[in-house]
Automatic annotation (TrEMBL):
The gene is cobD. This is Cobalamin biosynthesis protein CobD. It comes from Pseudomonas kuykendallii. InterPro entries: Cobalamin_biosynth_CobD/CbiB. GO terms for molecular function: ABC-type vitamin B12 transporter activity; threonine-phosphate decarboxylase activity. It is a multi-pass membrane protein.
Length: 303
């Protein structure tokens, strides 16, 4: 337990010091591997679910076993685990993408804010006004804080290096294959469902974390009433609780790939502004600090 706590603190510290590797990131190589597997297996009419399961296993399980073996190396295993967690989380990267959006909004540079928010959301940025940009960035911080930071910490705490590698690779495959279109509807089914399963518990712990660190009663109420209305079973609780904790209203209509989508409202209070992007980042950072503190305390109590 002490090793897990120290590894988690070390991984987060490395991320804070160095951020995401600019070159030779292992996930880039994994993306090429996943593309090669998908090209080989997803050939006829969008592939089949069984092929998707096989593709997921070929992409994820050997590297997870390799992480398990490296984590058991004498004297170096703890360092390998910390490095793998560092490569799996994206707290500093999230901050580096979100803060320029807030900066541009504060300067009144809407065009730059739209350009910057386009890096982190899939909706059409040119259609967004100032509040729309702030809303999109705030949603992205809350949701990606769960996916890219907290869930990686959760699976590291549960299963060490193999846990965090299994989660990060599965989450990456969901981003690559988990689309509901002709190409991926069947082949990507396993990647999407497994990512939902792996995120189920972390997402609800994140929602609880947001609630406890913000306006707790409002956050819990929004989570209970609004979270189930969202299309994603994991993003709904996270963003509803986060919006309630911050006292802002998120969701609503937005344009994705030229198509208007009407999404349920999340949260209560005022419309999102540029400062709410920073408040969302502070909420995520405080949540990470709370999780690390709990890991350290738990390790000391079990020592």
């Amino acid at each position: 337990m002490i090793g897990v706590a120290l590894g988690a603190c070390a991984g987060v510290a490395l991320d804070a010091l160095f951020g995401e590797p600019k070159r030779w990131h292992p996930l880039v190589g994994f993306g090429r591997l996943a593309d090669a597997i998908e090209t080989r297996l997803n050939r006829v009419n969008g592939g089949a679910r069984l092929n998707g399961v096989l593709g997921w296993c070929l992409a994820v399980l050997p590297l997870t076993l390799l992480a398990w073996a490296l984590g058991r190396l004498p004297y170096l295993g703890w360092l390998v685990e910390a490095l793998l967690l560092y490569l799996a989380i994206g707290l500093r990267s999230l901050d580096e993408h979100a803060q320029p959006v807030a900066d541009a909004l504060e300067r009144g540079d809407l065009d730059e804010a739209r350009r910057r928010v386009g890096y982190i959301v899939s909706r059409e940025p040119s259609a967004l006004d100032e509040n729309g940009v702030a809303l999109a960035a705030t949603e992205s911080v809350l949701e990606n804080g769960s996916d890219a930071v907290f869930a990686a910490l959760f699976w590291f705490a549960v299963a060490g290096a193999p846990g965090v590698v299994l989660y990060r690779l599965s989450n990456t495959l969901d981003a690559m294959w988990g689309y509901r279109n002709a190409r991926f509807e069947r082949f990507g089914w396993a990647a999407a469902r497994l990512d939902d399963v792996l995120n189920y518990l972390p997402a609800r712990l994140v929602a609880l974390t947001y609630a406890l660190l913000g306006e707790t009663r409002r956050a819990l109420r929004c989570w209970r009433l609004q979270g189930p209305q969202w299309s994603s079973p994991n993003a709904g609780p996270v963003m509803a609780a986060g919006a309630g904790a911050l006292g802002v209203v998120l969701g609503g209509p937005s344009i994705y790939h030229g198509e208007m989508r009407y999404r349920p409202p999340l949260g209560e209070g005022a419309v999102a502004r540029g400062e709410d992007i920073r408040r969302a980042m502070r909420l995520v950072r405080r949540g990470v600090a709370a999780w690390l503190l709990l890991l350290v305390i738990g390790s000391l109590l079990n020592a």
